[in-house]
Design brief:
single chain, 276 residues, alpha+beta, Jelly Rolls, six-stranded antiparallel sheet, 7 helices, binds 2-oxoglutaric acid
């Protein structure tokens, strides 16, 4: 990894924004050329999905997309973003979940039906008995299509809700207090805390929405989809291997040695304050 990535370390202001709101938006994280290349790869997967007979007006949720194209794989340790991920979570991290969502125009009239509000991680929110719930993981969402206006299947959030274990969610009509759409241009990366209450929304526009979600968590968290990213280890450098779940043995996910966490070794050399 090139040490020039250190210019993208999390700033104090970004840390404060993320801690307060559970959300951090980085515009132009991807170049127009990257957006074009990633969109072509996403479109290919979506075309295969439709060719397999899946409905054209329903969202495609596609987990384990990272091995499907080198452009997806390259974002795993993407220089403008990874330093902010370790700035939030530290160095004992890997990808625990990733999914591509393509949301075509629904063809439906706009309604105020309540969206599917949730915190990430399913049973974790019941099984761990603490308040507020622990952060544990974050996602980075790369927006490929233009959702800078509302109504385009936007990602909706309740900023600052990540310390709230419960949320007053309307029973069918309307959205919870404080809910807002994330307005994101193509190339924007949105970091969000898994605890922040969030929801997908219907696409009432005629613009297909395309977003890549990369979930990073502590290495001792189990993967949340049937990832086959281990197939990429032989062609990946040591830090990418760590992020793709490699480790020396089971104990090393809990008590890592230097061999388990090449990211830490790299930080010790290039940015000791982040290697703590
Ligand atoms: O598709 C969206 O906007 C929401 C995605 C989501 O809920 C998630 O990644 O947990």
């Amino acid at each position: 990894m090139d040490p020039s990535c250190l210019k993208h370390r999390l700033t104090d202001e970004e840390r404060q924004t993320f801690d307060e709101h559970g959300l951090l938006q980085i515009e132009d994280a991807l170049s127009p050329q990257q957006v074009e290349q990633l969109t072509a790869a996403a479109d290919r997967l979506h075309a295969d999905h439709l060719a397999a007979g899946k409905p054209a007006d329903k969202a495609m949720f596609y987990p384990n997309f990272i091995p499907e194209d080198p452009a997806f794989t390259d974002l795993v340790d993407y220089a403008p973003i990874l330093p902010k991920v370790w700035g939030i979570l530290g160095w004992n991290i890997s990808l625990y979940h990733a999914h591509l969502i393509v949301t075509p125009p629904s063809g439906q009239a706009r309604t105020d039906k309540t969206f599917g509000w949730h915190q990430d991680s399913g049973r974790v929110n019941r099984d761990i008995d603490s308040h507020p719930r622990p952060r544990l993981s974050i996602k980075v969402a790369y927006f490929l299509s233009d959702t800078s206006v509302e109504g385009r299947g936007n990602f909706w959030v309740i900023p600052g809700s990540h310390k709230h274990d419960d949320m007053d969610i309307p029973d069918g009509q309307g959205q919870p207090a404080g809910a807002v759409p994330v307005l994101a241009k193509p190339g924007t990366a949105v970091f969000f805390d898994r605890r922040m209450w969030h929801a997908a929304s219907p696409n009432w526009s005629d613009v297909t929405r395309k977003v890549l979600f990369y979930g990073y968590g502590f290495r001792w968290i189990r993967t949340k989809d049937d990832m086959t990213v281990q197939d990429l280890w032989p062609t990946s450098g040591p830090i990418r291997q760590q992020l793709l779940g490699a480790g020396v043995n089971a104990n090393g996910y809990y008590s890592p040695t230097d061999e388990d966490v090449p990211l830490r070794g790299w930080l010790k050399e290039h940015c000791p304050e982040d290697a703590e």
